Amino acid sequence: MATKASLSGKTPKFSVFGHTVVIPTGEQARKLFFFSRTLDNGEGFQILTGHAPRIEEVMENRPANQKRFALFIRRTHSLLHRDRLEKLIPELFSDLNTHMNSWPKNDQVDPFANSFGLMFHMTMRSQCAREFADDLSTLHGMGELLRFWNSEQEFSFNNAFTSWAPGSVVQKRKKAIGDLYGILTDIIKKRGDEGRCENDAFQFMLDQGDTIDDIFPYMLWIVFIGTAPSWVVSYFWPLFVLRKFIFSSAIVANWVLMFLKTHPEWDTKVRNELQSLCGEHCPDLALPAHVRFAQIPLDAWEGSTPVMEAVITETVRIVSTEPAFRRNIGGDVELNGLKVERGEFLMYPFGIEQMNKDNYPNPSTWNPARWADPAKFEHDRSQGKFLGWGIGMHPCLGMRIAKLYIKFTVALFIHNFEYSRVDRSGKVYHDVPVPNLSDTHCLLPKGKGHFLHIKRKSES
Ligand code: HEM
């Protein structure tokens, strides 16, 4: 709706929960949206919670929130540093392997639930505590505790309205967050009591002098993005910014698999690329696949995978069409003759650019060949045509690790499994799937073919 309105050339303004939301159109408006310092992305997201505070409260809490967010950004930068990522590769592949081994050998699965599980596991490994990532049952327990999957499905504007009700989703989340705080405190205490140091993100933060009250929000921001009740939003606002990114990694990985299935020429190219990487860095065929993949160095995963880069970029172009949000925390601004007042919200749907036929001919067609020239990606970002990883003041901090998560998942999955897209009754679908953009949680394909039938290959 927003994309259509915006493509019509008008600058629509509408009301949500009593707040005014403007959809900017045109180049000048896009520049303002992504580059202005007085349009705040965290405050923008609060429109989704139905509990956006008054602008006076925002400004009062702003210094403290900015301080917390600055710490969050610093820690994320350090934790995603290349030296650390390089060391993480074997552990991430081991986690993926453990996870995939727990799947059925020959059955129908919900691919979205499975890939959320994988991304959750890898995120725990790379940005949380070893205690959570080392053991599948602990990991599942954490997911269960926080109603990780369910709360995501249950999150809705209705829930925001009924947040006060005992037994409401919001109240359950409140309890879960309290329990989680307890678990985290225990872990830190136990490490202290045992004089034990671990090589993980928690330890890194502890070594920097961070306290539990710094680490807890960090963990929530990074991982349990979908579980926050609205009462913590003003404190934990990046939860709502980031929630979609953990899910985005899972969604993109799924769509890569589905598109590869319907485009055999690209499937072959990806397999050839992986084979040549393994051939160069780990030719020992006697080793299990996850061990071989783990021996491919970070530079090669990042710099010698042009086919996978093109496949991921094209998939993000098509599936990452959700809007970004901002709130005007400065003075009134004018957009195409329309006044955006202080405190009002703005929403920019990425589809305006990414599904625009002037930018991408036949925009609905999945065609990684568009990205044959690796320079095109940065060129299109600089021109504001490709917004899938953000631009301007708030580019994605996790692009690098998200791409690795997706490449690792796809590599091990297509090596280990044969698969086909099926519906609930097992009927196979061969057509190119189309994302249902109204399904903002899982972005399932339109129609009934939501499932994958997976069959473990005998030699893996
Ligand atoms: C396929 C997966 C992902 C996609 C498509 C994606 C996309 C994006 C986009 C479009 C933005 C800008 C939003 C805006 O302008 O309001 C963004 C920002 C951000 N992303 Fe990602 N992201 C992904 C994964 C991740 C992961 C795994 C992390 C965590 C490590 C992450 C961390 C962030 C952060 C911290 C920001 C906000 C930066 C800021 O406010 O300055 N992203 N991402």
From TrEMBL:
List, in alphabetical order, the Gene Ontology terms for molecular function in this entry. Answer: heme binding; iron ion binding; oxidoreductase activity, acting on paired donors, with incorporation or reduction of molecular oxygen; steroid hydroxylase activity
Instruction: Supply the CDD domains for this chain.
Output: cytochrome_P450
Q: Which domain of life is it from?
A: Eukaryota
Give one Pfam family, short name only.
p450
Keywords recorded for this protein, A-Z: Heme, Iron, Membrane, Metal-binding, Transmembrane, Transmembrane helix
SUPFAM superfamilies per record? Cytochrome P450
What are the binding positions for heme in this chain? 396
- The membrane spanning regions, by residue number, are 215-236
- Xref: InterPro entries: CYP450_sterol_14alpha_dmase, Cyt_P450, Cyt_P450_E_grp-I, Cyt_P450_sf
Give the required cofactors.
heme
The family annotation for this protein states: Belongs to the cytochrome P450 family.
The name this protein goes by in its record: Cytochrome P450
Instruction: Name the lineage.
Output: Eukaryota, Fungi, Dikarya, Basidiomycota, Agaricomycotina
